[in-house]
Amino acid sequence: MIFFSFLILPIVSVWIEKVSTGIFYIASYPFLFFNQCMTLIPAFRDSLIEIIRANSSPLVPIKTEITPSFNTIDHIRSVIFDVYGTLFISGSGDIGTIHKRERDCLYLKAAEKSSIVIHYDTPCEILGNLFSSLISKSHSDSRAKGIPHPEVDIISIWTDFFSKLKEDNLVLTLPSETEIRTFAVYYEILSNPVWPMPGLEETLKALGQRGFVTGIVSNAQFYTPLLFKALTGEDVAGNGFKKDLTFYSYEYGQAKPSPIMFEKLKDRLYNIYGITADETVYIGNDMLNDVKTASSAGLKTVLFAGDQRSLRIREDVCPDSVPDAIITSLNQLYERIV
Fold first, then answer.
1. Per-domain residue ranges for the chain?
2. 8 A C-beta contact, residue 53 and residue 235
3. Angstrom distance (rounded) from CA 142 to CA 151
4. Beta strands per DSSP E along the chain
C-alpha cells in the first residue's frame, strides 16, 4: 500500500494548462522532465513544434566568396553534421549570437506570447543585463570547475532569470516549468530565426540510400531537435539520424570546441557500429569548433561554406587547420565522399 501511494501521489498533483496555440498540456508534473534528457510528453512537445513552425519563415543563404574544393574523401562509412549554420540557416549566424541591442525587447515579446506577465514598464536594458550576467556567471562557475568550454543549461538560466524578476517584484508569479520552456522556444525563434539549408532533405535521403550511418554533434539546447519536425516534417530519426549518434552540448555542460562530444561519438561509432574515426566525416561551418576539433579527434572533415552569416574561418586561432574538403551547398557533399 505504501508503494501504491508513492506511485499515485505525483499523479494527483497534475493539472492542465492551455497555451496560446489552443493545445492543452500537463504542467508542474514532477516527472515531466528529468535533467532535460527525458523525452517531452507528446502534447507539450507538439505545442513547442507548432510554435517554431508558426513563427518561422523562409530564409535564403548569403553567398560566400569561398570556392568549393573537389577533393574526394575515401572509405567513409559515417557522416556526422553540425546543426546551426550547416543543416539549418541561422538568422543570427549561430545559436545564442544575436546582438545585445537587437535582442533586449524580445524578452517582453516572448513573455507576452508565453502568457508570462512582466511588469509593463520594466526597462529592456535591465532584462538584457540580467540575462547576460546569468550566462556569464554560469560560464565562470564551470570554468572554476576546470571546464574550459562550458555550455549553459538554458532552462536553468531562464529559471534563475524569472526567480530574480520575482524577487525584484517585476513578475507577479513565478512561471511553471512548461511556461519557462515555452518562453525559451519563443525567445530562441524570435532572436535566432532558422530555416532548413537548401538541399537538406535531398542530401540526407541520398546518404541514407547509400547506406551511410548519420549523426549529429552540435552546440544546442533542448529545442534544437524540435527544429527538424517543425521545419522538415520529420523528426531527427525520420531524417535518418541514429538516436545513439546525436550529441547536443546542453546534455554535457560543454560546448565545442570541447572534444567531449567527439570522443563520445567515436566510442559509440566503434562499439555499436564497428566504425572507426577515420571512416567518419564531420561537416560544419566553423573552422575551430568543427574542423579543427573534429580533425583533432581523428575524423575527416568538410567545411560547409554555404552561408556568409554563419561561416567562421577563424584564421587567428587555427591558421594551420585544413579541411579535407570544402562545400558551398549540401548537395555537393555526396559527390565528395565514397
1. 2-50, 78-92+194-335, 100-191
2. no
3. 8
4. 15-18, 24-27, 78-81, 88-90, 194-196, 213-218, 241-248, 280-284, 300-304, 325-327
Domain 78-92+194-335: assigned CATH number: 3.40.50.1000
Mean pLDDT of 224-240: 98
pTM above 0.90, yes or no: no
**Cell representation of residue 245:** 549518434
Q: Are 88 and 195 in contact (CB under 8 A)?
A: yes
> Strands 88-90 and 194-196: what pairing?
antiparallel
Mean pLDDT, the chain, whole residue set: 88
Cβ atoms within 10 Å of 84's Cβ, excluding its own: 25
User: In this structure, are residues 178 and 21 in contact, taking their beta carbons and an 8 Å threshold?
Assistant: no
Are 218 and 262 in contact by the 8 Å Cβ rule? The answer is no
In whole angstroms, give the CA distance from residue 23 to residue 193.
Answer: 23
Please, which pLDDT band fits residue 121 given cuts at 50, 70 and 90? confident
CA nearest to 274, candidates 73, 77, 74, 75 = 77
Whats the size of the chain, residue-wise? 338
Query: Helix crossing, 106-113 with 177-191: angle to 10°?
Result: 130
pLDDT in tens, 7-36: 333 333 333 333 333 333 333 333 344 334
CB count within 10 Å of CB 35 equals 8
Burial of 44 (0-12, 13-18, 19+ CB in 10 A): buried
Could you give the percent of the chain with pLDDT greater than 90?
79
Q: Which of 308, 304, 298, 294 is nearest to 326 (CA)?
A: 304
**pLDDT at position 28, please?**
36
Question: What cell numbers appear for 198 in the block?
Answer: 537548401
Distance from C-alpha of 320 to C-alpha of 173, rounded to nearest angstrom:
53
Asked if 278 and 181 touch (Cβ cutoff 8 Å), the reply is: no
How many CB atoms are closer than 10 A to CB 13? 9
